Amino acid sequence: MQKLLYVQLGDQITDQIRQGLYKVGERLPSVRELSKREQVSIATVNTAYANLEQRGWIEAKPKSGYFVRRSCLETVGLPETSNLKPKPRHMSVNELAMEVQRGVSNKKGSSFCAAVPDLNFPISKIIQRTYVSQAREGITFDQGYGSPEGLYELRQQIARRALGAGIQIGVDELITTAGAQNALALALRALTKPGDIVAVESPCYFGLLQMIESFGLKSIEIPTDAKDGMSIDALKLALQQWPIKVVLSIPAYSNPLGCVMPNENKQALMQLLQQYDIAMIEDDIYGELQFEGHRPKAVKAFDEEGRVLWCSSVSKTMDPKLRVGWIAPGKYYAKILHQKYVNSISLPSLPQSVAAQVMAQGQFDRHLRQARETYRQRAQHLIDLAQMHFPSEMRASSPQGGLVVWFEMPKKIDGTQLYYQCREREVRIAPGELFSVTGLYQNCFRMSFAKPWTLESEQAVAMIGLQLKEMMIKN
Amino acid sequence: MQKLLYVQLGDQITDQIRQGLYKVGERLPSVRELSKREQVSIATVNTAYANLEQRGWIEAKPKSGYFVRRSCLETVGLPETSNLKPKPRHMSVNELAMEVQRGVSNKKGSSFCAAVPDLNFPISKIIQRTYVSQAREGITFDQGYGSPEGLYELRQQIARRALGAGIQIGVDELITTAGAQNALALALRALTKPGDIVAVESPCYFGLLQMIESFGLKSIEIPTDAKDGMSIDALKLALQQWPIKVVLSIPAYSNPLGCVMPNENKQALMQLLQQYDIAMIEDDIYGELQFEGHRPKAVKAFDEEGRVLWCSSVSKTMDPKLRVGWIAPGKYYAKILHQKYVNSISLPSLPQSVAAQVMAQGQFDRHLRQARETYRQRAQHLIDLAQMHFPSEMRASSPQGGLVVWFEMPKKIDGTQLYYQCREREVRIAPGELFSVTGLYQNCFRMSFAKPWTLESEQAVAMIGLQLKEMMIKN
Fold first, then answer.
1. Which DSSP symbol is given to A254?
2. Is the Cβ of A148 closer than 8 Å to some Cβ of chain B?
3. Are residues B432 and B194 in contact, defined by beta-carbon separation less than 8 angstroms?
4. C-alpha distances in angstroms, A92 versus A87, A88, A412, A433?
5. Rounded CA separation B155/B359 (Å)
6. Considering the entire predicted model, what is its pTM?
7. C-alpha distances in angstroms, B78 versus B9, B75, B89?
8. B341 vs B71, more confident
9. pLDDT tens digit sequence for B299-317
10. Rounded to the nearest 5 degrees, what angle is found at the Cα of A392, between the Cα atoms of A390 and A395?
11. Is A105 on the interface with B (CB under 8 A)?
């Protein structure tokens, strides 16, 4: 039997309240609006609203309309949607990775899980002020979509900064992207087809492994030294044995090891790329976060044939939420530009303009000097705390820059189990399982040291140590 | 023989000026900065700068440093880069499509080429003011990357507006994207693998055809009626004969025909999707730009199994440069979220927040009412002008909404030739060649009527008519 029209309409509205379209205290559509939208009579809407009011879902306020009642969700029980997605204790690697990435924005507890910069440096205020002033100037009011290659002023600033990495490129050789992740995704898409093999570092940043898997590619993990980065000898061997299509690496402060590839290895790598006629995707996102001295030269600086696609962003040096990154794709320029164009036509112009303005100011370099020294001290403090609290068998990387430390425990420790135990106590780390598809790093985990140390976060490290020691005894 | 160090450095700097890193009148790095960056002595930098000054490239200003000389580019001839990319008269379809897309931002002449909204409505000022106020409130200063599913407040507004299209979805069933193009790209990536077949309308918006080709997919073009949209009978036949993986369509004000699929056809389409157990990607980007009456219901409104991925954006109703779009992926939610995550982690939060704020205001609906009536009048004026100036053999679509009119000429007219002839006169249209891979529409072209009519743009239509009449005689 068909329900009466006003009952149907009432059910729709209670569903919408449950689904979050209208929250407690928010105004519902006016009777006229609803009658027009649902193409029912004014009388039907009035009856539906009166019925909902009687049932305690909504309340009328004189001259302002109907509102979701403050108590309605309690009277009808918890919203159904909150029960729709239970979180299983054992997730797939993909789900685990996404949860780790999200964990950083947890308001409660201590988060060491994602390689996200501290956003309390003075540069954040400058970014905000620049946003306000750029918005006021009405930068968005050109016609059209903005160009696929990205804002000229930003590309100009990037070309200037590239000189610091030993890279000499023209403004026309750069394309802006939605962060470095997007640059790497465009590059992989343009250079590979499903089934192709990509050489990566081992351990490897999980965002890259997920991308490779999601694109239907295969990864081959090249042993990586905690000091010198990807082993050139091992890469040579792999190239002899496998039809590797592209090398994907973070030569400067590799995530998670924090190591830097020496210049002579970069030259040897370039020779291998030439010999096997393949390309390299260089993720240089941490390149400007050295703890001391000059920033490392990019592999791209040694590239005379346009084989290296240099990718980076302001996510670690300004704010990841700007989603401003770039790629210098060498001889693959046209392919990458077309990929970006079909993927999103262009990207928002205002964040690009803000990044360009901030880079053009001397304060940005001042910020980087301050950030480098601060991160160096925070890294040292994390290692000191780990030595104090973690089991004596632990080994830690000794990063020369970047935002993370890699910890290796005896084989009997399960990093994923540790992750769940910490999560219960509102403390977030990144389990080693995510950094390989081979299961090689189940006894490892990664911690970020970017945030300022507090009593709470120091106690969190002590708590992790306690968990580890318990696991050592139990297993 | 190796060049002297200061000569090498000087060559680098002149290259950088040619490449656009430093423009006429801009300050070059200080002697100290350059010595540090290039790791050469202060003396070498001083000699290099002195030499460049002598050769007329740069000039010193007391106490402020070295600047690129106003006359240097003339004295050394045109910058080399401007000769690097000659524009051939006959481009590939990809290049042609990108040029058409860019043509809209040409400052000179009249542009009818891209389906871009008029940005001179009062809503543009409101968007700008909202940008300023949102930036002031420091929306960007949460920790982390922003969530992969996108800003909650925006998804809430979208879920409310979806009701107008007959779609009832929860806030948790939506994912924000970088415009509708990005939504469609994520959907195609998630649902297909290279070699798969996608059913599209014919003629079909070229951005979709390019995406399909670029992803290694094949398109099958389904005859589309200028009034009723994609032919259901023809689709049925195609489904019987080919292993079609997904149907991609613009049921509301299809680009370029401006037609609307009737509700009974939408129901028949849903039955076909069920029968063949396939998905549909619905591009609803023009859905709210009806010329009169209610906006059309979306196909998604008839979808009870989560087979339809509903995609749209604010590019036609607010500003394409916001790059704010969305997708309601039905049962493919997890796949799409993962695609977005590996593609860019998240998207800039501020443009999302601006779009949400603007949608929440009553002014947005007021703007839509005004825009619909304005576009209706402008469309009528374009058709009137075409009837006045174009050869009498021409046929034109009669759009019921959206931003474009489709013109069909006798077979002897070449739309691509017309495009080049118009381009020489700084008038831009979209040649029919782009709207099919079959060569079916060589004698057609598309014109946008979004911009306000001026004497210049009216004369441009007369000029197009003149070209057409000449071509009629010559061929």
1. -
2. yes
3. no
4. 11, 10, 22, 11
5. 11
6. 0.88
7. 21, 9, 22
8. B341
9. 999 999 999 999 999 999 9
10. 80
11. yes
